[in-house]
Amino acid sequence: MPRFRSPLPALLSALLLGATALAHAAPQYVEVGTPLPRFHLLKEGSHRYLRYLRSADGNTALDIWQRDIHFDGTRMQIRQRWDAVGKTPSVKRLESTFETATFRPLTHVRITEKDGRKTVEGFAFAADRISGMAGLKDNTQKNLAVESKEPSFNFETDMELLQTLPLADGYEAQLVFYHAGGAAPARYTFRVAGSEAIGGPAGPVDCWIVTTDYNQPGSVSKFWYAKGTQLMVKQESTLPDGRTLVKTLLD
């Protein structure tokens, strides 16, 4: 009489293989204009970060970076302020608007004050191009016209955008970003590389580690996002000269 073989081992093996395949699936393309799964994690309020350069010789403070989020019906606004320290203090202010729930960028204004000079830059995002805001007073970028083969996100608000994605083990996302005033938009891949508990303003924080090379093979930037809120706690980027740019949450 043939012996009965339980199907359980084969079933477990198939499930494990499936899970492994899922963990190494192709990056998920995040299309501009579609609702983002964890957009609800973005909350009104302010957060401040310290930016500094770390090297073998020590640490050099760069600036205090404040980011404010505000909602107004179908619109979201993110304001940023960078107060630089050192021999040549400067202030940079950014004001960006978006479609609520999708993070589709609408406008982006950048004002820099340094050495007694004020520079104004304003941009309008559309599905097929990014243009200078013609109606913005003193806009030095009013003649800008950059075509885009596909809609793009605003690169200067990538920190909050990553916060709205379904971060989990094995997750990879591909996003189109444009840095206002720069070259053409491009696709970038961000992947969850693991987990780690790191120090935060109020003690240890269990975080997802997200990495990208910003399309520069050999370089690496790491982000630590708190698992509960998906707020960015820290970022480290290795620079070509060997130093590390660090952004760390203050409050």
Outline of this structure?
The chain contains two helices and 16 strands.
Structure annotation, total helices:
2
Q: How many strand units?
A: 16
**N-C termini distance:** 71 Å
Mean pLDDT: 91
- State the helicity in percent bands: under 10%
**Number of domains as seen in the coordinates:** 1
Pfam family, one: DUF3108
Protein name: DUF3108 domain-containing protein
Signal peptide: 1-25
Keywords: Signal
Describe this structure in words.
The protein is 9% helix and 51% strand. The chain is built from 2 helices and 16 strands. The chain has helices at residues 8-23, 158-163; strands spanning 28-29, 45-55, 58-72, 75-84, 90-99, 105-114, 117-125, 129-132, 145-147, 153-154, 172-178, 186-200, 203-212, 221-226, 232-238, 244-249. β14 (221-226) and β15 (232-238) form a beta hairpin. It is globular. Mean pLDDT is 91; it is low at 1-5 and 7-23.
